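Deviations from the work plan: none for this task. Representative record:
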Amino acid sequence: MLKIENLHVSVGDKPILKGLNLEINAGEVHAIMGPNGAGKSTLSHVLSGKPGYNITEGKVTYMGEDLLDMDPEIRSREGVFLAFQYPVEIPGVSNIYLLKAALNSIRKHNGLDEVDAMDFLTLVKDKIKLLEMDEKFLYRAVNEGFSGGEKKRNEILQAAILEPKLCILDETDSGLDIDALKIVAEGVNSLRSTERSFLMITHYQRLLDYIKPDIVHVLADGQIVKSGGPELALELEEKGYQWVEGQAA
Amino acid sequence: MTVQYVSQYSSEYKNNVSQLPGQSLEWLKSFRAEAFDRFSSTGFPSLREEEWRYTNVSAIEKKLFSPLAIVDTGVVDKSWLTDFVLDDCYTVVLVNGHFSSDLSSLDDLSTDVAVLSMAQALDQKPETVQKYLAQAVSNEEHSFVAFNSAWFTDGLFIHIPSKIVLDKPVQLVHLTTQAECLSTTRNLLIVDEMAEAKVIETFVGVDSAYLSAAVTEVFVEKNAELTLFKVQSEGDKAYHFGGTYVKQARDSRFNHHNFAFGGLLARNDIHTNLDVASECDLNGLSLGIKRQHIDNHTRIKHLQPHAISRELYKGVFNQRARGVFQGRVFVAEDAQKTDSEMNNRNLLLSADAEVDTKPQLEIYADDVKCAHGVTVGQLDEKSIFYLQSRCVDKETARNILTFAFANEMVDKVQLTSLRELLLGQLLKRFPQAGVDKQWL
């Protein structure tokens, strides 16, 4: 589904990613762990098309197409979803209309008619229960005045409705207490399928207790320095990031 | 002997005074004479005056707009009214500065309240007019006020007696139908103790140069409440001057929603004086396109303790439009426990658009809570990217964000019919924000 080959990315003159390789097949859940500053968020931003990054080398293939060649909205319509580390507040635009516009953009992109208003409402209400959110959230401005946990849940709600093929979770667990984490993890687990892949970016091992990854990668100094099964996360937790940082370069 | 006046308006219209309403009232004649002298000594404000630094009104002096007589309402293009008159309000229509009873609709108005044209009020309730006229603003304020006092032809007079809650809003429509027209109107809105009312001032006119100069004096008595809306949607070549001067008694509430959409040059002055524990909420939205110049001056005076003031003015400026905001909050020595917040937020959509913003706090009390904030900027890139990552294309994302920024002010309007009118105006002024109905 996704193949990243020798990806080099700089911000200004500063190299952040230095030859990253990663392959994710349909249905797989990958976790990328790493110390602060390793380039985790840069990877999620580059995959979703955020401006401000120079791609100096390498390529990213998504569903057989050149991902880096697509505008951000085309990527999202093609099924790449980024759950933001810091979801943006958009005063004046209600949650429900953003959801509807996004869903209809995808449908239009795929040559389908706009979603029926009643069907849409049923769908949204169904998903909102899953995330244990109040229906009132739908009519509030996007993320405005939401608590940290509410913002993260809202991101997963969007994913649940847009049904992406590749879901990138950028530090979705940061700042969540254990109860909120469980709800978010449950939401994510309910989205798992043989068709859908996940790339979870996290600083903390705890998330992986609730969302079991197939493969764990360690990112340090712009490269993946170690890959393994879920047990790698536990080993990391025990030994600390110094253990892998020593292996970089 | 011919006197040489600073302003040609003084020499041209000196004798017009004899045709204005209220001729039999000696006090009014001397009031107008005093105002005439006041205006004539200075002419229109100049850029040298601090309050007019950013707004050049010299074109008004060069053009010499002319007052018109009452027009036959049969020839008035009714489409203006269908576009702007709300059907769930009492309607008072002034055409080129004169009340039109044919176009107005005051059916079912309770006999307890007075909703009259200013000319009628001078005839039927001269003592009340005398008691309140120029009590919320003096002719010394600036020369547009003196100009208005000297030459106002008509206006709206509302008096809501104690404890009456007006059942429907009153909509005042100022319609200018002819090029080069000068329309000078004066309004008095009096809301007695415990009474409540909503009033909508609407300004519309032809697509030619004209001058509309309106002064509204407002008296909100003890524990009374007035919500005043202003929808300024003048023709694109019009000059608009509007002053709203408010006196608030103890425990009163005054809510103002000031929508500045039209005109080539538009200036609003909104002043309020707050007595003990009174509250004011001033809201403004300016939408400037092409070469429009929109200037808002607000002044809130906390004169007594425990009063609350809230102010949010927003501006969106595109192409070569220019916005000015000057907001002053004055807190007198006695006004302890004042709670005041003032914000001015501006969005510049083009490199040639410009905003001059100047919030000013003048505080003489020591136990107060006063905050103010100003922003001038472009659309937030993070928000644009967030929308793109949710499948929305960049152009639409920009439009949605622009629309959402402005719509926050429209959303504050509680009257559904008015909110829809404003929404229509917003989309008309910003067709590029051709936002799908689904966003509304």
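The first strand of chain A starts at residue 2 and ends at 11.
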